[in-house]
């Protein structure tokens, strides 16, 4: 099976550090009128290259905010983010966008495909936006890798949820990002589709050394990762290596009780 | 290779695919631009022809002037309104596409790329529409000349030969209008955050941007300053000045619409919200939530009603002041005048004077040359009878005594000449007459310019003196006191002169200018009404189609189709009503300022608001909005499956 050249293996890049993502003391507050919500309260975390990390925690604990800040989609109030060795602080919106193109791929709960474009066009979009002529082979390979070769000309409305999410994964990976960010990628999928998507992510990590960080609230999904980090009230609240659905569920229950 | 997908060139793929899928939304922009370019192209062709013909003779030159003033104003208004339509269409287009554009940002598009994709859309639409409009020029040109011909303003037109440059210019102008209109929207699009693609609802969170505040307040300040410190103006420039003030205020209100419109709309819906029905409550709450939609629906009505009322009001105000002043200033019981630029026959003057108890004051018009340091200067002069003239019309003497005119070798001068110290009372200067004689005339009085409606020429002489030395002097009017109109009419029958009261005389003096202005009004009014319908239909088609899910939820909550259709129509009509009321406010302010600016030139000036026309324009906008909203809602509800997937 043809796969993706992951960021770590990309030619032309020298001195790629072993740490794909380095977060130092991230803080972020949201102000809604008079109320202030602390979404991140000093998070420090390192993700090694080729690791598969799940982020868990109660609803509102800051998981999405953490992901957005780490991926350069949002800016923390303080603290530093280093994505594949490049600090994101102080970059302009334009520079940040250009950096994201090559370094970060995204998959979200809502598949976020452009409804007017076909699956193949959706996958080719990041390349076109980066003004890289999308090699047809590259797009086709990406779609084949997620098992949707024969659906290339279909529009999102003609695809099932699982299929749409696999198109989204193909789109996220077509630029060979250093880190793939996924926020509840299975949140809108049934068990079978969910299984397919997780298998796909696992395979990317195992066979191509892709770095993946994924937010989820489902212990079964989290168990596909190498490591689970827990978040509560915007703070890290422990981690779990080589998780199983049972150990994760157990930890989660304690977390919510405390 | 398992699949081959045909793809367009890499960089152009996203804007163009977007263009294709939103063809419907861009139709309004395109129509507005086609209309504007066709008008501009036709106008420029006519103006080019008029400029050529003006070398040909007096009549053609007059024609050319009329054409340039009329069509020039109409084109300026067309450009203003079409920038407006394009701007509001694109603003709405971007607002509706926020999620899609955020998704592009999320997929790696830089703010600049998003901005350019919006501008690219404007460029493509603008180029196509402007080209079509420019090509239509040779068809619109004869329509325009026909309109002016039919009004009877000028006798006989001229053919409009084909020329390339008017079409080239109007194409460029159309493109410029499209890009100007889309500029602000593209800036807004560039500021969309990729995170917006991840949020659930797409309610307008911050409809007021800093540039909107800045622009809106700046235009408001300029507009209100103009209203407060209305610079003195003449009736000739009244239209242009009014257009300027109204355009400033309208732009200000449109920019501030997201702040101004929702509270007004909530107030307007209050009576219904108190009722038991759901429509009032829903319309009221929706108005607050969907600020962009409401503002975009109100804006076209604001422009049309505001501009139409302000322009018609300006013409009405000037016209009423002219008629009012002539009636106010003319004290004579009957006025004898000659049709056109003719002269009242001396037989008619004598016949009127022969009526028992009647006094006649005849007034002749000719010209003299004043000897000035830089050489002789030509001046218009009237010859009057100083004893009877002040009884015929109200005269205001600034200095001296008009009675002195009955002595030999004297003259009076009007206010506008009194600035020259050599022309003050008691001084004498050499005056040359058309027959070649030169006499030193002493200034005995300075006469005030009371009203533009009855202007006093530079030099006033004894009528016999003027007639003795200017063979071409014509008797423009004979004022009769002490005899009524039927008596005078009977006495002068058969002389070719006509008789009427002061009001008839006013009509004879100023009716032509008013007719010419009414052609302009019809042109501008018809055009901006057409723009309003385009803009309204466009806005409502775009926004109503976007409300599919909301309508579906209402259906689930138990609303009948009829209730939803009525709700959509009601909401649109309420927004249009608020827009129209704001337009009326703008017009009232503008007219008040115009009246005070003209107050130095007229005695009886007061703002005249054209209520009937305003009501008709408002009614037309309301009907158009309600009908379009109801139709699109019916269409949206009746289509079982949308071809494109709604937002996830
Ligand atoms: N755009 C925002 N504006 C205001 N508050 C926000 C925003 N995004 C997140 N929050 C708040 O920050 C906290 C963390 O949110 P989030 O990171 O989305 O949590 P999670 O993904 O773990 O459910 C929550 O209390 C949430 O209400
Ligand atoms: Mg979340």
Automatic annotation (TrEMBL), chain A:
GO terms for molecular function: ATP binding; ATP hydrolysis activity; transmembrane transporter activity. GO terms for cellular component: membrane protein complex; plasma membrane. Residues 21-258 form the ABC transporter domain. The keyword Nucleotide-binding applies. Keywords: ATP-binding, Nucleotide-binding, Transport. It holds the Pfam family ABC_tran. Gene3D superfamilies: P-loop containing nucleotide triphosphate hydrolases (3.40.50.300). It comes from the Bacteria. PANTHER family: ABC TRANSPORTER RELATED, IMPORT ATP-BINDING PROTEIN. This is ABC transporter ATP-binding protein. It comes from Acrocarpospora macrocephala. The lineage of its organism: Bacteria, Bacillati, Actinomycetota, Actinomycetes, Streptosporangiales.
TrEMBL record, chain B:
Residues 75-194, 524-633 form the ABC3 transporter permease C-terminal domain. InterPro entries: ABC3_permease_C, Lipoprotein-release_system. Keywords: Cell membrane, Membrane, Transmembrane, Transmembrane helix. It is a multi-pass membrane protein. GO terms for biological process: lipoprotein localization to outer membrane. The chain crosses the membrane at residues 63-96, 117-144, 164-185, 213-232, 244-265, 301-321, 519-543, 564-591, 611-638. It comes from the Bacteria. The keyword Transport does not apply. GO terms for cellular component: plasma membrane protein complex. It is found in: Cell membrane. Belongs to the ABC-4 integral membrane protein family. LolC/E subfamily. This is ABC transporter permease. It comes from Acrocarpospora macrocephala.
């Amino acid at each position: 099976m043809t796969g993706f050249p992951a960021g770590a293996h990309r030619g032309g890049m020298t001195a790629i550090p072993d740490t794909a993502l380095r977060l130092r003391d991230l803080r972020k507050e949201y102000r809604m009128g008079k109320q202030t919500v602390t979404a991140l309260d000093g998070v420090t975390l390192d993700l090694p290259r080729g690791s598969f990390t799940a982020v868990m925690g109660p609803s509102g604990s800051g998981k999405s905010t953490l992901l957005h800040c780490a991926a350069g989609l949002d800016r923390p109030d303080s603290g530093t983010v280093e994505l594949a060795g490049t600090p994101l602080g102080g970059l302009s919106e334009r520079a940040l966008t250009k950096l994201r193109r090559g370094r970060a791929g995204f998959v979200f709960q809502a598949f976020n495909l452009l409804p007017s474009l076909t699956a193949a066009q959706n996958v080719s979009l990041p390349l076109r936006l980066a003004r890289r002529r999308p090699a047809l082979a590259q797009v086709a390979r990406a779609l084949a890798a997620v098992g949707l070769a024969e659906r290339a000309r279909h529009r999102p409305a003609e695809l099932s949820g699982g299929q749409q999410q696999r198109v989204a994964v193909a789109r996220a990976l077509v630029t060979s990002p250093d880190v793939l960010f996924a926020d509840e990628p299975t949140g809108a999928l049934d068990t079978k589709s969910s299984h397919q998507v997780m298998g796909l992510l696992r395979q990317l990590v195992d066979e191509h050394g892709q770095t993946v960080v994924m937010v989820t609230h489902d212990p079964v999904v989290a168990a596909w990762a190498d490591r689970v980090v827990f978040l509560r009230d915007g703070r890290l609240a422990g981690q779990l290596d080589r998780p199983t659905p049972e150990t994760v569920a157990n930890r989660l229950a304690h977390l919510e009780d405390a | 290779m398992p699949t081959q997908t045909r793809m367009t060139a890499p960089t152009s793929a996203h804007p163009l695919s977007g263009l294709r899928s939103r063809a419907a939304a861009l139709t309004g922009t395109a129509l507005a631009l086609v209309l504007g370019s066709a008008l501009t192209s036709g106008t420029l062709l006519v103006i080019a022809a008029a400029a050529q013909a003006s070398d040909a003779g007096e009549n053609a030159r007059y024609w050319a002037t009329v054409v340039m003033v009329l069509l020039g104003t109409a084109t300026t208004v067309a450009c203003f309104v079409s920038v407006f339509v394009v701007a509001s269409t694109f603003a709405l287009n971007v607002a509706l596409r926020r999620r899609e554009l955020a998704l592009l940002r999320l997929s790696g598009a830089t703010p600049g790329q998003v901005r350019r994709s919006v501008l690219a859309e404007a460029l493509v639409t603008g180029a196509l529409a402007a080209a079509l409009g420019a090509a239509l020029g040779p068809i619109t040109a004869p329509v325009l000349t026909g309109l002016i011909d039919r009004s009877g303003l000028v006798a006989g037109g001229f053919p409009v030969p084909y020329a390339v440059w008017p079409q080239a210019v109007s194409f460029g102008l159309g493109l410029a209008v499209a890009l100007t209109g889309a500029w602000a929207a593209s800036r807004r699009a560039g500021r969309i955050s990729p995170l917006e693609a991840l949020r659930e609802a797409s309610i307008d969170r911050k409809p007021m941007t800093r540039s909107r505040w800045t622009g809106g307040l700046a235009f408001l300040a300029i507009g209100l300053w103009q209203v407060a410190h209305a610079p003195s103006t003449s009736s000739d420039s009244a239209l242009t000045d009014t257009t300027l003030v109204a355009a400033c205020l309208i732009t200000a209100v449109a920019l501030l619409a997201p702040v101004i419109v929702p509270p007004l709309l909530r107030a307007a819906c209050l009576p219904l919200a108190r009722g038991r029905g759901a429509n009032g409550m829903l319309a009221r709450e929706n108005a607050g939530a969907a600020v962009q939609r409401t503002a975009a629906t109100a804006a076209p009505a604001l422009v049309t009603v505001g501009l139409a009322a302000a322009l018609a009001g300006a013409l009405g105000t000037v016209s009423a002041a002219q008629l009012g002043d002539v009636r106010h200033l003319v004290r004579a019981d009957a006025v004898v005048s000659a049709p056109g630029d003719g002269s009242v026959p001396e037989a008619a003057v004598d016949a009127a004077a022969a009526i028992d108890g009647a006094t006649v004051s005849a007034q002749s018009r000719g010209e003299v040359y004043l000897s000035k340091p830089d050489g002789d200067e030509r001046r218009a002069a009237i010859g009057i009878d100083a004893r009877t003239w002040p009884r015929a019309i109200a005269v205001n003497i600034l200095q001296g005594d008009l009675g002195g005119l009955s002595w030999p070798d004297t003259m009076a001068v009007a206010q506008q000449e009194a600035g020259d110290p050599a022309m003050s009372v008691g001084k004498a200067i050499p005056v040359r007459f058309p027959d070649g004689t030169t006499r030193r005339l002493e200034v005995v009085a300075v006469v005030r310019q009371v009203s533009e409606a009855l202007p006093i020429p530079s030099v006033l002489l004894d009528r016999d003196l003027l007639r003795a030395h200017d063979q071409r002097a014509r008797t423009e009017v004979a004022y009769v006191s002490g005899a009524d109109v039927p008596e005078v009419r009977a006495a002068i029958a058969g002389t070719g002169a006509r008789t009427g009261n002061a009001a008839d005389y006013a009509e004879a003096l100023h009716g032509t200018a008013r007719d010419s202005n009414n052609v302009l009004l019809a042109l501008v009014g018809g055009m901006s009404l057409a723009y309003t319908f385009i803009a309204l239909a466009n806005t409502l088609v775009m926004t109503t189609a976007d409300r599919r899910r909301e309508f579906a939820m209402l259906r689930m909550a138990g609303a009948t189709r009829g209730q939803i259709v009525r709700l959509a129509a009601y909401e649109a009509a309420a927004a249009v009503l608020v827009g129209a009321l704001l337009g009326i406010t703008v017009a009232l302010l503008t007219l008040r300022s115009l009246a005070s600016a003209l107050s130095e030139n007229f005695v009886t000036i007061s703002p005249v608001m054209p209520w009937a026309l305003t009501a008709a324009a408002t009614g037309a906008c309301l009907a158009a909005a309600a009908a379009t909203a109801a139709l699109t809602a019916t269409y949206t509800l009746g289509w079982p499956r949308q071809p494109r997937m709604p937002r996830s």
